[in-house]
Specification:
The strands form two sheets. A three-stranded parallel β-sheet has the order 4-3-5, with no helix packed on it. The chain has a two-stranded antiparallel ribbon with strand order 1-2. It has two domains: 1-86, Orthogonal Bundle (Multidrug-efflux Transporter Regulator, Chain: A, Domain 2); 89-156, no CATH class. The protein has helices spanning 7-14, 18-28, 45-59, 64-67, 72-86, 106-113, 144-155; strands at residues 34-35, 41-42, 96-101, 119-123, 136-140. By secondary structure, the protein is an alpha/beta fold.
Length: 156
């Protein structure tokens, strides 16, 4: 059974250090991860999406104390409002993206949606993908351990 992402994986996915994630939880209540055995933190894709949005706003100069109190919708609106003008790609930027993703996780959607001025095409399987002059292609596939775990669960 999938418990979620551990803090080290979340740090890599969001670009936020593990110390900062813990501090944001403790001081501001940005997210409240689930706890497992040995009190380990487990984060959902929703937690990761929220952390990505908060980081983008903090990086743009917003105060963490203000940003942390926003609802998920307010975070998204503010991210698009503040970063909309500075997030526009220049003439040489990557404007046409294709994202190949079986599961289409929320954190990946949040990363892609945070980019402004791009055309995104979502494809669920590699076979359905055909290059049509994309500037950028993202491929998100399950790891072999995830596939193996699902096969074992089906056999039970």
């Amino acid at each position: 059974m999938d418990k979620g992402y551990k803090i080290g994986a979340v740090a890599k996915l969001t670009g936020i250090s593990t110390d900062s994630i813990r501090a944001w939880e403790r001081r501001y209540g940005v997210v409240e991860p689930n706890r497992g055995e040995n009190n380990n933190r487990y984060y959902t894709e929703e937690h990761i999406g929220r952390l990505i949005s908060v980081k983008r706003l903090v990086d743009a100069g917003q105060a963490i104390g203000t940003v942390c109190r926003l609802s998920d919708q307010e975070l998204q609106d503010r991210t698009h409002g503040i970063l909309g003008s500075i997030g526009q790609p220049s003439g040489g930027a990557l404007k046409k993206w294709t994202v190949i993703s079986v599961q289409q996780p929320i954190w990946l959607k949040a990363c892609v949606e945070a980019q402004h001025g791009i055309q995104v095409r979502w494809v669920r399987c590699l076979e359905a993908f055909s290059a049509s002059h994309e500037d950028f292609v993202v491929i998100d596939m399950p790891s072999l351990s995830e596939v193996n775990e699902k096969l074992v669960l089906r056999m039970l």
